Amino acid sequence: MAKRSHSGGPSGSHRTLRIGEAIRRRLSEMLTRGEIHDPDLTAMSITVGEVRVSPDLRTATAYILPLGGQAAGTALEALRRNRGEIRHQIGKALGIKHTPELRFEFDDTFDRMDATRRMFSDERVQRDIHKSDDEEE
């Protein structure tokens, strides 16, 4: 069975996974060290949860989450505004022939996990789970 990625689709080849992780690490370093010269980005702490690279290696989507989940719109706008500089720096660091076009999206993984936890703690869902467990015995 194929591994699943952020979107729920197949995760792709070893090479796309390796390049995605290398981009994620470099982008995280750039954000942590303040290497992107934009006051909006230097004023916030941003986590890069995952970078998914397309099978043809032409695009890479970085899923980001500002600390506390606040100002996601500002963070996305600033990253998109600086994508040329970021792409250039990533290309230099990775030394790959073609650096993928960068896209930035909000990482909603934690929101989805919280929603799942809330759903499973719901009294009706718990009753159904226990009913199902009793039927198996």
Automatic annotation (TrEMBL):
<dbReference type="InterPro" id="IPR000238">
    <property type="entry name" value="RbfA"/>
</dbReference>
<comment type="similarity">
    <text>Belongs to the RbfA family.</text>
</comment>
<keyword id="KW-0963">Cytoplasm</keyword>
<keyword id="KW-0690">Ribosome biogenesis</keyword>
<comment type="subunit">
    <text>Monomer. Binds 30S ribosomal subunits, but not 50S ribosomal subunits or 70S ribosomes.</text>
</comment>
<dbReference type="Pfam" id="PF02033">
    <property type="entry name" value="RBFA"/>
</dbReference>
<dbReference type="InterPro" id="IPR023799">
    <property type="entry name" value="RbfA_dom_sf"/>
</dbReference>
<dbReference type="GO" id="GO:0030490">
    <property type="term" value="P:maturation of SSU-rRNA"/>
</dbReference>
<dbReference type="InterPro" id="IPR015946">
    <property type="entry name" value="KH_dom-like_a/b"/>
</dbReference>
<comment type="function">
    <text>One of several proteins that assist in the late maturation steps of the functional core of the 30S ribosomal subunit. Associates with free 30S ribosomal subunits (but not with 30S subunits that are part of 70S ribosomes or polysomes). Required for efficient processing of 16S rRNA. May interact with the 5'-terminal helix region of 16S rRNA.</text>
</comment>
<dbReference type="GO" id="GO:0005829">
    <property type="term" value="C:cytosol"/>
</dbReference>
<protein>
    <recommendedName>
        <fullName>Ribosome-binding factor A</fullName>
    </recommendedName>
</protein>
<dbReference type="GO" id="GO:0043024">
    <property type="term" value="F:ribosomal small subunit binding"/>
</dbReference>
<dbReference type="InterPro" id="IPR020053">
    <property type="entry name" value="Ribosome-bd_factorA_CS"/>
</dbReference>
